[in-house]
Amino acid sequence: MQYWPLRPGSSEHRFNIAHTANLFARVGQNRSKFLAADLLQVIGSGVPLAQCTIFAYPQRRNAEVFSFADRAREVSLPAISHKYVQRFFGLDGNQQVMSQSHCVTNTIVQRQSADDITHPEYRRICYEQPQIAERVALLTHCESNRWLSVNFYRGREHGRFSAQEMNYLEALAPLLIQAVRLHYHAHLQANELPLLLAERVIKQQHVALTLREQTLLRLMLSGLAVEDIAEHLGVRPVSAATYVKRLYRKLGVNGLRELFGLTTQAQWALS
């Protein structure tokens, strides 16, 4: 297993401008299901690839499959991806990369072959069964200590990535990573906005909240009334109101308006 900070590309390969334009034009259109396929189209035939899978690694949660695409392999990629996030992601070499703080500010390139994997079931299900020779992962750190991993899988029929092909992937990597970050951020805003805002508040105020306080914060940022918060927490409205006031004090704000203000500061614009 190898990894290194992304290097400046010097490839002379061309890529399809129309596919690239579509990739960015579709941000916010809830197209995460097709994002991996779009990346394969941008890369084109310059680098033969079998599969592309994009994983998200939220803090203290299992890995999540964000998007996947398969170029006519004889196995079910959704099933393999599901088994990976349920059983094997902790064994992935990219966990070593993501655990190192000096990697946070960079895009990291990681190469992993079947020979690098000692766990027999992980190797069999994720590499031998789909006949994968090698994987290249582009790892980027995002808001609220999330990581994204854009994984490109090489079929055995094409062997390992050549130096020229690696140079081409690294040349395209900044464009691909930025597109994935934008699509993922749009996905969070559309599907997990209260959680995203709560994570911003916690990071901004440098406070440690209990699990119950984190749940309460998400409910407050969902715009729920005290009565609805009480129902979700299983307490009386008067108790919920007390919990809300205590949390405001702990966060150092005077009300919901100031709370939302913490989540919309300029520092979050390009996270």
TrEMBL record:
Pfam families documented for this protein: GerE
Could you tell me which SMART domains the record lists for this protein?
Answer: HTH_LUXR (SM00421)
Taking every annotated instance into account, which residue ranges of this chain make up the domain HTH luxR-type?
206-263
Q: Which domain of life is it from?
A: Bacteria
Give the protein's recorded name: Helix-turn-helix transcriptional regulator
